[in-house]
Automatic annotation (TrEMBL):
Transmembrane segments: 5-21, 27-43, 48-66, 72-93, 123-141, 147-168
UniProt-recorded name of the protein: DNA gyrase subunit B
Upper classification of the organism: Bacteria, Pseudomonadati, Pseudomonadota, Betaproteobacteria, Neisseriales
Keywords per UniProt: Membrane, Transmembrane, Transmembrane helix
Organism encoding this protein: Iodobacter violaceini
Keyword flag Membrane: yes
Length: 177
């Protein structure tokens, strides 16, 4: 249940921050990020997510002590950076992140599948770099642009990438029989 609540709050984070601006000072909105960081730290055993939780707690602490919104708006940049690092590390130390996911449903993944999943992992790394840069730009642009991009457009782009990869994967699998 905590994982589900954390997922929903994480997805809704930009919108919650944007809507909260009209009612609360940034230092009080920082408590949402602290709660997310603590919950993530309690739910995970993976070092990379503990680092992300520590980064989120640091952003929240800076926001709370300075009463500035910018550190809270940098959270999506942090998330994209952590995801990019995790995927990139999986390329350096195989199996790749996408190969691990693929092996959940296909344990005997052929070599062509390993190459394909490695390429898809590289594509996701590129996406995380792009998305993190867009999140950073919007953090300095306007609150509305930041909320729109990080609370809607980024998710549409993620969905488009999932859909595009699914279509390509079907074609690749058909080509390999």
């Amino acid at each position: 249940m905590r994982t589900l609540v954390l997922g929903i709050i994480t997805l809704a984070y930009p919108v919650l921050i944007y809507l909260g601006l009209g009612h609360f000072e940034p230092k009080w909105l920082a408590l949402l990020l602290v709660a997310m960081a603590l919950t993530r730290a309690l739910l995970t055993k993976e070092k990379i997510w503990l680092i992300a939780a520590a980064g989120a707690a640091l952003l929240a602490m800076v926001s709370f002590t300075s009463n500035q919104l910018l550190p809270l708006k940098l959270y999506p940049v942090l998330v994209n950076g952590v995801l990019c690092a995790a995927f990139a590390l999986s390329l350096a130390y195989p199996p790749s992140a996408i190969e691990r996911l693929a092996r959940l449903s296909e344990p005997d993944l052929p070599e062509s599948g390993v190459r394909y999943t490695r390429r898809v992992t590289q594509v996701w790394c590129g996406f995380f770099i792009f998305n993190g840069c867009a999140a950073l730009i919007t953090a300095f642009w306007s609150d509305a642009a930041w909320a729109l991009y990080n609370g809607l457009i980024a998710y549409i782009l993620i969905g488009a990438l999932f859909l595009g990869e699914w279509i390509i994967r079907r074609r690749v699998r058909a080509a390999y029989g």
